Amino acid sequence: MNNRDQIRLLLVILRKIVLIFLIPMISLPGCLPGIPDGKYRCGADPQASCPTGWYCYINSDVSAEPRCYRDAPDSDIDVDTDSNTDSENDTALPPNVSFSRLGEWAVYNDVFHSYVEGTTAYIARSDYIQILDVSDPVAGKIHEIGKHYTERIVYLMVKNQIVYGIQKNGGASGPDALVVIDAADPERPSLLTVYSLLDEAGELDTENAQFDQLEIYGDDVYLQGQCFLQIVSFSNPEFPQFIWRQGLLVENMVCEGIYSVVRSGNLLYMANGSRGMTVYDVSDLSAPDPLEALVTSESIEDMAITDSHAFFATGKGGLESAFIGELEGMGITGVLPLDTWGHRVEMMGDIAIVSFITHEAGAFMSGDYNILDAGVVAVDVSNPNAMTILDGIGELAEPADIQVVGDRIYITNKEKGLLIYSLDKQ
Predict the structure, then answer these.
(1) Any idea what the CATH number is for the domain that residue 300 is in?
(2) 58 contact partners, CB below 8 Å, separation of at least 6
(3) Rounded Cα gap, residues 110 and 22, in angstroms
(4) How far apart are CA 108 and CA 413, in angstroms?
(5) pLDDT in tens, the chain (426 residues)
(6) What is the pTM of this model?
(7) Is residue 189 included in any domain, yes or no?
(8) How many distinct structural domains can be found in the chain?
(9) Is 39 among the domain residues?
(10) Residue 51 lies in domain
(11) Would 109 be classed as within a structural domain?
């Protein structure tokens, strides 16, 4: 073989080598065969961004985002079965949402609590309950439609236009009371009854008679205090009937407050502050039966329940999630530190709306969001094991109560009055 033939043979070999390595690089721009599994994210079109025969899915052991893998997913891995055929893949990335203010009712240093039923807001002020029409919350269109003069209402809830308000008497002039008001005609609300706390024997309790908040399920009101939970039937609001009371006197005769109760079917979830959460069977409401207990890492300030999980706003802990789908298997699944004090939590689908406060001056950092003094954050909890902050509102200056009604978020505090927001999805 002469020199020319040797050169020609060498060129043929080099051409084959180039083709072997170049073709895969051109045809597989997203993930190369030599790249380890899970190295690259799948793009908007998984077929174009993963090699032929590879799979685009989420393997939580590797990443919370969709990635390219050689092998088909195991049955226990979270997968979007259409991710290799659809033109869009939005299964793993958290929604892109932001708070958008719809309107406000600025009442400074004179708002204790609020509750919204339908498109009517009830505002607890220092010496009366103010009733607002919030059907069109655009600035300037929220307007008063009525009021009822009742002093020291600090917490209220409304059902079927009946207002249940906790009246604080400070312990000096008598026990706290539950004031019940008929607001069917908001221009002329009328007092139905005033209910005072009873002890286990059904007698007026003048020693442990401090209400903090309440919940309403059916015709029954669940009154929560520093040392007790009391359930009262208001099937006839003018003649309330005592049902059950649970006292919570713990070690060294110290009371452990009840910070939140949620009823789901025949189960009652009771948050006992630093003692965590206790679940009761309330199929017989006159004799609730304790079933299981869950200990949290921090004191529970408030909680929200879904079909399978509980979400706790916790002191110093931020937001904690717990699996509650099976009582015997209850356990903490995730913690989202907020570097502040969790205050209130409400659910908006797969998004938790959490209010927080701080006890120190200055700014705190959580992810990419600056937290200042007090505020509200929206948290993606679609994966309770890996919760993510989506957006937030800061500089509220005072602790905020929150309520989710439909697609609106109502925020109340003394400094700002009533603020109304929505979550806009990009």
Answers:
(1) 2.130.10.10
(2) 64, 65, 66, 67, 77, 78, 79, 80, 91, 92
(3) 72
(4) 9
(5) 555 555 555 554 555 454 444 433 433 333 333 345 665 555 444 443 454 566 777 777 766 667 667 777 765 544 443 433 333 333 455 678 899 999 988 776 688 999 999 999 999 998 999 999 999 998 678 999 999 999 889 999 999 999 999 998 754 456 788 999 999 999 999 999 999 876 556 566 655 567 889 999 999 999 988 778 889 999 998 899 989 988 765 555 566 678 899 999 999 999 987 778 999 999 999 999 999 999 888 889 999 999 999 999 987 778 999 999 988 889 999 998 876 778 899 999 999 999 987 655 444 434 333 444 688 999 999 999 989 989 998 878 777 899 999 999 999 988 788 999 999 987
(6) 0.74
(7) no
(8) 2
(9) yes
(10) 3-69
(11) no
Q: Which of 40, 69, 98 is the last residue of a domain?
A: 69
The residue from 53, 69, 85 where one domain ends is 69
Q: Is residue 425 part of a domain?
A: no
